[in-house]
Write a structure and sequence with these properties.
The structure is a homotetramer.
Chain A: E1 2-6, H1 10-21, E2 25-29, H2 33-40, E3 45-46, H3 50-56, E4 62-65, H4 69-82, E5 88-91, H5 97-107, E6 113-120, H6 125-128, E7 131-135, H7 138-151, H8 170-173, E8 175-179, H9 183-210, H10 214-217, H11 240-247, H12 256-267, H13 282-294, H14 299-311, H15 316-330, H16 349-360
Parallel strand pairs in A: 1-2, 1-4, 2-3, 4-5, 5-6, 7-8
Antiparallel strand pairs in A: 6-7
Helix pairs in contact in A: 9-13, 9-14, 11-12
Keywords (chains A, B, C, D): Gluconate utilization, Oxidoreductase
Protein name (chains A, B, C, D): Decarboxylating 6-phosphogluconate dehydrogenase
InterPro entries (chains A, B, C, D): 6-PGluconate_DH-like_C_sf, 6DGDH_YqeC, 6PGD_dom2, 6PGDH_C, 6PGDH_NADP-bd, 6PGdom_BS, NAD(P)-bd_dom_sf, Pgluconate_DH
C-alpha cells in the first residue's frame, strides 16, 4: 500500500527502505532536501512540502510521522490541517502517551484517524524489523495492517511459544493493536521502563564482577571507609568480556541486551573513553510516574532511573548534606588527618578517627 | 572421557544423558537405587556406593557432584577420603563460592584437584546445553575440558559477536575457566543476582500494564489512600499475554526470561493458582552481600531481593510499625470510620479524615 | 487580628482555639452546624454560610480554608466569588502545590490574594503549635503574620542553632515565607516525602531487631527458601519497646517519630490489631514525581512509598509473574512436594528440589 | 565505683570526664603518654601499661576498652591475659557484634565476664550523655550499672512516654541491657543502619528543594536528557537553611539529625568545601547483611548505603556499561553532536538524536 513518511532521520529512512523492499509505495518528506533526495534515489517519491506530500497520496491517506517528540505537536497540527476525513495520521515517534490521548481527542471531530505506534529495534531495525505497539481505532489499525506486517520482524527464527498453534497471531509477527489512542505509546513506555531495569541489573552485576578482586586491590583503605572484611574471598580477577560472551549461551539471562554488552566489552574491554554519564530519555521517568499514579510498587524500575540521575552527579547536593551532617555529629572532615593516639600497641592515628566517629554515632 | 556422577536428580541425570549421547562413559551413583537403575538402563555404569564408583573409574578420575548444597560438604569429605592424588573432584551444584575456597584449601595437601562449576540452564538444559562457569586449577580445567564441551550448549544459532573471528573461544561454546577455586560459583552467583533483577524489572513492568485500567477500576477509593489523579490517562485494558509475546520479536528487551513469561501468560493468562509468594535461593542474597562487602552500589539487585522477601510477608512487622506511627501522629485507625463534617457543600465524612491526617503530618 | 475559618474538623477547630487563646477574633463556618455551635460556645463568632462569614468580617478580610483537598477547588471558587479585592484567601489544607499555582493564576486579576500554607503538627498541634510553610505574595504574608505567629510553635524549648543571634527569625518561631504561590505546599510536600523515608528507616530497623531471633525461630525452613546461614549470630530476643524508649535519649536518631514509635510500642508491644496495610496520602507520591521531573535521585523516598503500596498487596501481580517464571525455568511449584532422591547418605527429598532449581537457574 | 579505661581518644577521655564528675574513680591508659597525663591532670589515676592498670584496680575489676575496632581483638587478648576470674572486660567501641559473640565464647572458661556496649552520642556526649546498648551476662550488667547510669543521659528534659509511670526504667535513663553477648552491638548496628536511612531521607528531600528552581535553571537541555516537563511548576528558589530551621519546630520530622542539618546549613549555606564523597563505617553494611541473612526487606536502609557508595564513584564501571549498551543499540555517543535534520519546520539537529535513540529502544 501507499504510505507518506515525514521525518527521514535514521529511523524514518530505514522504515521507508524496509517498506519499499516489500513493494510498498512511499512518499517522503523532510525539512532537509538532501534526505528526501537520498530516498528518492532509492525509489521513494519525494515531496517538497507537507501539502505536496498530501497531493501525491491517494485518499484515504496514511501518513507516518517519525520526528522528535518535541516537534510532534506542531507537525500534527500542520499535517491534520491539510488532511481529509478518513485519512490516518500516525505518530511513530517517542511521544508521551498522554499527548496521544490529547491529540486523538482534539482530532475526533475532524474524521481524521489518529494512531500512535511505539517502535523498538534501534539501529538494527532495518534488518531485524521493528517491534510495533499500536494504539488507536480498530478501523485505522485494520487499514494499516499491511505496512505494519512489513515493518515488523515477522516470526523469524524465534521459537514458537508452547501451546500456540495455527496461523500466527499479529503479536507473533511483531506488531500488536494494544488498545485505543495512547495504548501503543503506553506499552512502549513500559517497555523502556523495563529496559532501564534490565540494563541496570546487568550493569550492577558486571560491576560486582569487576570488584571481585577487592581483596587484592583494597589492601590500603581510608580511615573513613569500612575496610573490606574477609579479603580472602575477594581474590578473583574476572575477565568480564569473556563472561558476557559466556552468558549468551544457555544461561537464564541470555538476552539481546547481553548480546550488546558482550559486543561492547569485546570491542572495548576497559570501556575506555566512556565517562559513565548516562542519559535518560523520557520513558523511564514516565513509567515511574505511572507506577506512582496507579499505586504499583516499582522499586527496581525507579532505582534504575535514579542510578542514571546519580551518574550525572544530580546527587551532589544530597551527598554534601550527608557529609555536612557527619561533620556535625562526628566532628570529622571528609578528608581526615589523624591526630589522636589510641591504645593497642601501636600508633593508630587514622583508624582512631574511624573509631570515635562510628562509636559515637 | 570417563566421568563419575554423584546425584541423579533431574540436573545430574540430564547431564549424564547429554554426556552419553556424545560418547562419554559415565559411572553413576545416587542414594536412590532406582535412579541408578534408570540411568544404567540408558547405558551408564551403575555404582552401589561411592567406593564402588571410585573402583569403577580409571585413575586419574573425575567425579562430579550434583547434589543439594546443604549436603555437599559431607559428600566432599566422603568422596575425597576414597580418592587418590591427581583425581579431580567437581562440585557442580549451587554452593556458595566461599565454601569452594575453604574446601579447595582443605584439599590442597591431598593432591586432589577441586573444581567448582556453576551451571545454568534449568529444565531446558538437556536440549539447550548448560552454561558452565568453572573455577579451579588450570591443569584440572584442561583435563575435564572434553566433558565441559559436551555439556555446554556450543555455538548453536547464537549470532557471533561482531569483531570475533577464527576458532571459537571456550566462552563462545558456553563454558569458561573463570579463575581459581571459587571463581566459578562466584560468577554463577552474580549471574543469579542479575537474574533476580531482570525478573523483577519484567514483573514490575507487567504489573504497571495490568494497572493501566486504574482509571476505570479505581473509581471508588478509600479516604486513607491517595486518589488516582487524572484517571483519563489510565483507561487501558492491556492484554498482557499478547504484549509478552509481542516483545519477543525485535524489541530491545527480548530475552529468554521474556520467552518464559510469554509462555507462562499464554498458558495461564490470569496466573490463577499462583499465590505470589516468591522463593529465593541463596545466590541473590550472596550477591547483595558481596556488593556490600566490596562497596559496589547494587540498589536494583537488592530491591529485587527485598521484593521477594516482602512477597512472603516478611515486611509485616515493619508495616505494623508504620501503621502504629500513623495512628499516633494522625490519630487515625487503619480502617477509618468518618465522624467529622467539613465545609464544601456536602457531607464529606471519610475524606475529612484524610485531610486532617495529611494536613497535620 | 480577625480571621475567618472554613472547615472545623480537628485541625481547623484547634487552630481557631489556638488563635482565640492568643486574643484573635475568629469567625467560623462549617457545613455541620454542630461544629459551628461548639466553637461559638468557646468564643468564636459563628457563621451560617460563606456569605454570612464574609459579611461578619471587616475588609480587608483573611479567610482560611481547612478542608479536604478534594473539596478545595470548589470552595475556593465559592469563597472568591464573595470576596473583595484586597482580601486574602488562605488554603491551609493538604493541596497539591500545582493547584495553588493554578488557583493563584486564576485569581490574579480579581485582586484577591491567594496564600497556600502547609501545616505540620498532627494531633499535638493544639499544644505544640503548627509548623507553617507559607507561599504567596509578600504583602499578604506580611498582613497575616500576626496569626501565623500565634499558630506556630514559637521558639519553645528547642535549643537555638549555633551561630544564630539577635531577634529570632520567623523560621525560628515556626513559620516561613517560602516563596510565591505554591511554595508553601511544595515545601510541605517535600516534608512529607522525607517523613515517609524516616518512618520507613525506623520501621525497617525495628523489623530487623524483631528478627534477631531468626537463629532460634527459623530452625525449620522450606526447600524453596534459602536457609539461615550462621544461625549462631541470630540468637537475640530484642525487647523492641524498650529499645525504642532507649534511643530517645542521647542517640543520634532521637526524633519525634521515634517518640511516637516508643509510645506506640509501649502501649501495644506486639502491635496487635494492626494489619499493616499502610495508607499513603498524596504528598509522598507528589514528592517522588517532583524528583523524577527534576532529575533528582530519590531512591530512599521512592522505596518508602513503594513499601506502602506493597503493604496493601499492590505487588500481587508482579509476584505472581515471578512465581510463574520460576515455574517455567525451574519446573517447580510454589509449594513443592519432593519427589527426587539424591545422594548424600540420606533421603533429601525437599532439598533436592532447591538444588536443582538453583543449580539450574 | 572504680573503672579502668583503655583508649583515651575523644570518646574515651570524655567518658572518663563524665564519670569523674559524678564521683567515680578512673584508672586510665593509652599508648600515648600525653593523653594519660592530660587526664591524670584532671583527677584520673594514670597507668603506664595494661599490667600497671590492672595492678591499680581492686578486684573484681571492670575495664572499658574504647579503641578502634581494628585493634580490639588484640587488646582483648592482651587485657584478658592479665585479668582474674570475676573481672569484667567491656568493649565500648564499634565492634561487629559477631566479634563479641566469638570473644565471649573464647573467654567463657576464664571466668572473665565480657560485656559489649554500643554507644551513641557523638561529639556532644560529654554534655548530653551517651546512649548505651549493653550485651552480656546479667551479673556483669548489674555490677557496672552505676557507671552506666552516670555515662548515660538520664531522663533529662525528654518528655515521658504516655502510659509510663513510677520509677524510671533503665531505658528511660538512656541505658539498656539488650541481651546476651553481642546484643549491645547488634542493637547499635541497627541504630546506625536506621541513621543512614534517616540521613538519606533528609538529604534527598533537601536535594529536591534545591532543585525546585529547575524550571528556571534548566531552560537549556541536552538532546540526550529528557527535558523538564511543565517548567511552570518548578519556579521556586527555596532557602534551604531557613527550611531546615523551620522544620525543627512543630513538624513531624523534627529530630536531632535535622538540628544538625540546620546548624550545618546556617554555617555554610552553599555547603562550600564539601566534596560530597560520603564515608561509611561498617554498621550500615552489617545492618544490610543482617537483613539479607534474616530475610527482612530493607530497601530503604540498603538504598541509603548504596547512595554513599555511589557518592564515592563506586558506580563508575556500572555506568560505563550502561553507556556502552546505549552506544550499541542506539548508535549514540555519550556527548552527541547532531547531524541529522528532521521535519517540523526547523532545523532540529540535537533533538533528532534524542528522538531516534528513544524511538528505537
Amino acid at each position: 500500500m501507499q504510505l507518506g513518511m515525514v521525518g527521514l532521520g535514521r529511523m524514518g529512512a530505514n522504515i521507508v527502505r524496509r517498506l519499499m523492499r516489500d513493494g510498498h509505495e512511499c512518499v517522503v518528506f523532510d525539512v532537509n532536501p538532501d534526505a528526501v533526495d537520498t530516498l528518492a534515489g532509492e525509489g521513494a517519491v519525494g515531496a517538497t512540502s507537507l501539502a505536496d506530500m498530501v497531493a501525491k497520496l491517494e485518499a484515504p491517506r496514511a501518513i507516518w510521522l517519525m520526528i522528535p517528540a518535541g516537534l510532534t505537536g506542531t507537525v500534527v497540527d500542520e499535517v491534520s490541517a491539510v488532511l481529509d476525513p478518513g485519512d490516518i495520521l500516525i505518530d511513530g515517534g517517542n511521544s508521551n502517551y498522554r499527548d496521544d490521548v490529547r491529540r486523538a481527542a482534539k482530532l475526533k471531530d475532524t474524521g481524521i484517524h489518529y494512531v500512535d505506534i511505539g517502535t523498538s529495534g534501534g539501529v538494527f531495525g532495518l534488518e531485524r524489523g521493528y517491534c510495533l505497539m499500536v494504539g488507536g481505532p480498530d478501523e485505522a489499525f485494520a487499514r494499516i495492517e499491511p505496512i505494519l506486517k512489513t515493518i515488523a520482524p515477522g516470526g523469524g527464527d524465534v521459537p514458537r511459544t508452547p501451546g500456540r498453534s495455527g496461523d500466527p497471531a499479529p503479536e507473533e509477527l511483531g506488531y500488536l493493536h494494544c488498545g485505543p489512542s495512547g495504548a501503543g505509546h503506553f506499552v512502549k513506555m513500559v517497555h523502556n521502563g523495563i529496559e532501564y531495569g534490565v540494563m541496570a541489573a546487568l550493569a550492577e552485576g558486571f560491576n560486582i564482577l569487576e570488584h571481585a578482586d577487592a581483596g587484592i586491590t583494597q589492601a590500603e583503605h581510608s580511615a573513613e571507609i569500612a575496610p573490606l572484611e574477609e579479603p580472602e574471598f575477594y581474590q578473583f580477577t574476572i575477565d568480564t568480556p569473556k563472561v558476557a560472551e559466556l552468558w549468551r549461551r544457555g544461561s537464564v539471562i541470555s538476552s539481546w541486551l547481553l548480546d550488546l554488552t558482550a559486543a561492547a566489552l569485546h570491542g572495548n574491554p576497559t570501556l575506555e573513553g566512556l565517562a559513565g554519564r548516562v542519559s535518560d530519555s523520557g520513558e523511564g521517568r514516565w513509567t515511574v510516574k505511572a507506577a506512582v499514579d496507579t499505586g504499583v510498587p516499582a522499586p527496581v524500575l525507579a532505582a534504575s532511573l535514579f542510578e542514571r540521575f546519580a551518574s550525572r552527579d544530580e546527587d551532589q547536593f544530597a551527598n554534601q548534606i550527608l557529609s555536612a551532617m557527619r561533620l556535625q555529629f562526628g566532628g570529622h572532615q571528609e578528608l581526615p588527618a589523624g591526630d589522636v593516639l589510641e591504645a593497642g600497641g601501636e600508633k593508630a592515628e587514622s583508624s582512631s578517627r574511624g573509631q570515635s566517629e562510628t562509636a559515637g554515632e
